[in-house]
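pls read this protein:
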Amino acid sequence: MDFPQVLTTPLLTIVGAAASPGFAGSLGVKRALEQAKHQRAFDRRLEWYEKAVRASMKFRQLAEEVAIAIKNDDLTTLERMISTRLQVTRSLQRTLTESLVFADKRTYIELKRVLKESQRRIGETTQDLARSEDVHIAYEYIATLMDRLSFDLATSIRKQLDLDEITIEEFEE
């Protein structure tokens, strides 16, 4: 062993020993920051799913109440529901707009389909107001669409949370 090697070996050992904890520590910090970022993103996504299910269930309930009021020719209830309908509709629209950011692809596509179908049905209903006997059927259909939307949202988030699957039959019981 020559003299320079004798001097450099302990020096390299000391430098390596000193650098290792710093390097490992920085990797640990970086990993922890990544995990925190993913957890925050998941928490926001979970919050959106909860909000989306609540909004779709409120819209479903409103559609059912409108259908019943129309069947019963209860104009007082229908007039009272106008402001509620506007608030519930806006809440659902905001939630659906946010789906672009928070929903998984399959759920996003399903939300768009349900929204288009609901808008189509509401448009048809508006054009056919003269045939009031059919209007309640359109609102019952919209309630069914919202019920299915709630199920699809719940199914999606349950899968992401690794929870047991619920079948459509169990949901409808």
Observations:
- DSSP finds five helices and no strands in the chain.
- The mean pLDDT is 77.
- Helices lie at 3-71, 75-102, 105-127, 132-160, 168-172.
